[in-house]
Amino acid sequence: MQRDKTTRLQTRPVAWMLGLACAFCAFQGVLLATLPQKAEETAAPAGKNRNANRSDPKRVMGITKSDCKKCHPSEVTHWMKTVHSQSSELRLYKFEGNTEKYAKALGVTQDQLLADSTCATCHATKAIVNNVTKVIASVSCESCHGAAGGEDGWLNRHQSYHASMPIPRAQETAEHREQRIKAIDAAGMIRSDNIYEQAKSCYGCHIIGEEKLVAAGHKAASAFEFVSWSSGEVRHNFFVDKTKNADAPTLWAERTGSNVENRRRVKFVVGTLVKLEMALRHRAKAKNPAVIPQFSAVAAASSGQLAQINGLAGTPETQAAVVLATPLLGMLFAPPQPTDAKTFGDIADKFAEQARKFAKTHDGSKLKGLDALIKLRAPHFSQQYKTKNP
Ligand code: HEC
Ligand code: HEC
Ligand code: HEC
Ligand code: HEC
Prior knowledge:
The chain has helices at residues 3-10, 13-17, 21-25, 48-54, 63-66, 68-71, 73-79, 87-91, 97-106, 110-113, 118-123, 141-145, 154-158, 174-186, 195-206, 211-215, 226-231, 250-256, 260-285, 292-313, 316-325, 328-332, 340-361, 371-375, 383-388; strands at residues 125-129, 132-137. By secondary structure, it is mostly helical. It has two domains: 1-190, no CATH class; 192-390, no CATH class. It binds heme C (HEC) (4 copies). One heme C binds at residues 20, 23, 61, 66-68, 70-72, 141-142, 145, 148, 155, 158-159, 169, 191-192, 249, 251-252.
């Protein structure tokens, strides 16, 4: 039954012309599962298709099978040094210590840890192998760029500059590029152009919505800030020059003519809004009075940062967000109410709307006022990374 899709994919002419037979081995007999972004379950309405694709368990391909390394060697080499590439070994392979404690709290057995567990959703990449969902890697490319496979997946389309011939990037027509980008975005690819989706993907794992897990002692959130956490060990902007890890995505810089200062400013504001959005989504669902303050604290801190941003470089979107955030402080730490899901869910949707609008409308060039604040956020590296790469 899975063969059907495989056959159809293999008959696509473009890829054969490009000599990508290998990328297709990927599809053979294996349909892979994705990492469902926890947050997508309650995600805002816009971009529905994309979100649906991204969490479709049949679409994750895996680095080896999709051969990312063939065309992105420096990105893969760099990724292997990051703690993301080790998280499943660190947290899921040994049933002991905190791993055992958290797993038991959720009723997850040792076998399930490396299969279809909630834990593997954040600490690993899950795929369907021989009809069974299991861990095929730690946090990997598709965890952040969206599942690549499936019938209309982005993998083949994203690197094809012409319908039937292999031509260099510089020769792609503007029209073809526009169509291609539209198609891969619709297929759920998360790219550098879409800062909102990128931030949301990070926060999908870095704020932990599962109440029972948090009640068992698992952190409710990383000390995550989007600019600093994406510009340290995670940064891998090698596309145009494979020998140089640029400060900003090189394809994006080429397409927009913009620079890293502008990008940081937009990331800073969008990251703040998304953090608030995501913390509220978890606050909306929370019922345990011991856990609620942990989500509320994340939302409150982010709300404070938003006010600072708006004071230094106000825009219509940050202004609207401040108006939404102001009454929150009085509500966030109140005892749980039956109306919480709706109240906080609706406000989260509105933050999402402002964040998307902001990302679309601003290129950062008018937000210099934020630089002093951004400078305080140094590129972040994990302890493991620093020890291994002094
Ligand atoms: C056959 C070569 C090839 C393979 C295999 C390949 N890519 Fe790419 N990738 C490219 C090319 C070419 C581009 C540049 C596209 C452009 O000019 O817009 C690219 C661009 C990208 C971008 C940046 C897109 C943007 O607009 O910012 C990401 C992210 C990416 N690839 C991820 C992956 C991942 C993840 C895999 C494996 C699942 C993969 N690629 C496999 C060739 C490939
Ligand atoms: C929503 C995403 C998410 C889920 C679900 C999740 N984790 Fe985590 N986990 C994280 C993140 C992010 C960190 C790193 C937090 C930090 O320090 O910034 C982490 C850290 C850890 C750590 C190291 C810190 C500690 O508390 O000892 C362990 C162990 C761990 N997780 C185990 C588990 C287990 C077992 C499960 C399932 C029962 C699980 N996690 C589910 C995201 C998640
Ligand atoms: C933790 C999430 C994450 C993981 C894992 C990840 N990426 Fe990325 N990737 C990003 C982000 C975020 C950017 C944009 C970076 C920025 O703003 O500086 C990016 C940018 C890129 C670009 C554009 C670079 C350029 O110069 O234009 C490519 C290509 C890419 N990633 C490929 C990959 C491949 C291949 C893998 C797997 C080896 C991978 N990524 C793993 C988050 C991730
Ligand atoms: C699929 C879930 C997932 C996604 C998506 C994700 N991360 Fe992570 N990240 C983790 C987990 C889990 C850890 C903790 C690894 C461990 O210790 O086991 C982590 C650790 C990190 C660390 C190391 C922090 C430290 O001090 O140990 C950085 C930096 C980081 N992530 C940045 C990012 C950025 C930036 C993004 C988005 C572009 C992102 N992550 C997206 C799951 C994820």
